[in-house]
Structures are given as C-alpha cells and as structure tokens.
Design a protein that fits this description.
single chain, 197 residues, alpha/beta, Rossmann fold, 6 helices, 8 strands, globular
C-alpha cells in the first residue's frame, strides 16, 4: 500500500511538472509544485489594490507563453495597461485582449468563457467580487480550456476558502516582495519566498 501511495503522489507531481511554466524567478520556481505557474488551473494572487509587484511577478511567464498561437486576456484591470512596457518584455499586443471596466457579473462571465474556449493561454482577472462558487467555475473552465487563469484579489480574501490550485499572498518589503504560498495543490512543502523585482 505504501508504494502505491508514493507512486500515486509521484504521478500527480509529474502531471503538474509536465505542463507548468517557469515563473522567471528561480527561488519561486523551487518553491512551487511543478517548478512554475500551473497550466489548466486557477492561480489566486492576494495583494494590495494597485500593487505593481503582482503583475511584474507574472511578466516573464506571460512573455514566454506568447507565440503559441493563442492570445492572452486582461479583464477589469485597475489601470490601463501601458502598451510599450508590455511590448518591451515580449508580449504580443496584437494577441492581447483587454476588457476594461465591465460590470462585475460580466467580468466573471467573460473570464469563464475565455478560460473555457481554448483560445487563450492566460486570462488575468481583477474581479470586484468573487465568491467560492464563481471561483470554482473559473477553476473548472481553466481545466477545460487548458488555460492559466490568474485572479487578483485583496489580502482580506485570504480568510475565505478558495478552489484555486495555487494561492499566493504578496507582501511588499521595501524593494523586495515576499511571496507567501498559502495553497499549492499537490504540494505539502509550502514556504515563503523573498524576491527582488
């Protein structure tokens, strides 16, 4: 029985390793199951509103997955993305969808449809509100569409349960950022990582 359980856990880990993409930060990759951002799953990033570190944390991976023939979608960002900065890190602006200032229900619906469609390699969402049921729908849609879903929520949401495969809380520490791994599916060795962005 013991070897069967060990084999099963190894299979789960290998499944994540096969589809994850490196974050661009070696220390964070080492702390995450599969060595990077999970594919076909929802990642929840809890941070202060308008925290620039959250987006900078994703930029290397977003640039890396561009060019696979699929697009990326940004839904309800709290700011207008600065196109020259995105292009400078390698994001193809022609393959980027921006849905700016939708109603709360429309933002969740749009994210679910885009995650499920298979047309996107990443969908980033800044919802005004999102309960467990809405997040569960996004998680299932990400699995179905083999898409990376990223939801940015406030740090106060850490007390709420979440179906996200990966859940991180970001804390700014001067010119560094501390990434607290609150939840990582298939991974028991959760730890905090400090990064210089």
């Amino acid at each position: 029985m013991k070897s069967t359980l060990v084999e099963l856990l190894a299979e789960v880990r290998n499944a994540y390793e096969a589809s994850d993409i490196e974050t661009g930060f070696a220390a964070l990759d080492a702390a995450l199951p599969g060595g990077g951002w999970p594919a076909g799953a929802l990642t929840e990033i809890l941070c202060e509103p308008h925290a620039s570190g959250a987006l900078r944390l994703l930029m290397p991976a977003l640039a890396r997955v561009h060019g696979d023939g699929r697009c990326q979608a940004w839904i309800a960002p709290p700011f207008v993305p600065y196109a020259p900065a995105l292009a400078a890190v390698g994001i193809d602006l022609a393959a980027t969808i921006l849905i700016y200032k939708p109603q709360a229900a429309d933002a969740l619906w749009s994210a679910e449809q885009l995650l499920r469609s298979g047309l996107c390699n990443a969908v980033l969402l800044w919802p005004k509100t999102a309960d467990f049921r809405a997040l569960r729908r996004l998680q299932l849609a990400a699995e179905q569409g083999d898409c990376r879903g990223v939801v940015f929520r406030g740090v106060a949401c850490a007390a709420q349960p979440s179906p996200a495969a990966l859940r991180l809380r970001l804390c700014a520490l001067g010119d560094e950022i501390e990434v607290q791994i609150l939840k990582a599916r298939g991974w028991l060795n959760r730890q905090n990582v400090r990064l210089k962005l």
